[in-house]
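User: Can you predict the 3D structure for this chain?
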Amino acid sequence: MASHSLPLRPLLQCKLSSLPSHRRRISVACSSLSAQPLVAAPDDLVSSILSKVKGTDRGVLLSKDGHKEVADIAQKLRSYCVSEPVKCPLIFGEWDVLYCSVPTSPGGGYRSAFGRLFLNAKEMVQIVEAPDIVKNRVLFSVIGFLDGEVSLKGKLDVLDEKWIQVIFEPPQLKIGSLAIQYGGESEVKLEITYIDEKIRLGLGSKGSLFVFSRRDL
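Assistant: Here is the predicted structure, written as structure tokens:
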């Protein structure tokens, strides 16, 4: 599939009236939008998936049955996704990473069983900026005393109407006054399986399910 930068043309199929005013300004400034009704999922499905993932340390504390329940709800929400979610202005904004079916996927080694012995992840945030910038940020504390941060910046390319690819620059690590860049570039591919004003669901190319919650509501 040929990749291309996130299109910002009047092909979007989401309504903007429910967005915060500053997010509407960003979207309108980026493109001339021809908004069509967004078919919202039943509130109970959205509330249910949020209730099942909150307080689970982004999936770490969930049982096998718990992960299956989340996957089942995500599959139901999938049927309410707009036809071309990559063109929906709702993708822009700041998102909390609430859940991943493979808890070590977001954060890598920092989220491994060994890493969690020393590093407590306080926040995991993804920022999507128009037209095609993605920033991932993990805020953590080292043994509960020293604050640190790992951040990545990447460029978003659209693969088709649902799949995106992000190529990230080498990550940056900050602990106290120390700041270093390490490693090399990395790449992720993600299918947007559902999006609305509150949540976004994504499925990685290796099958990892992600649940994101909008921060600025």
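Residues 7-13, 15-36 have pLDDT under 50 and may be disordered. The CA atoms of residues 121 and 140 lie 4 Å apart.
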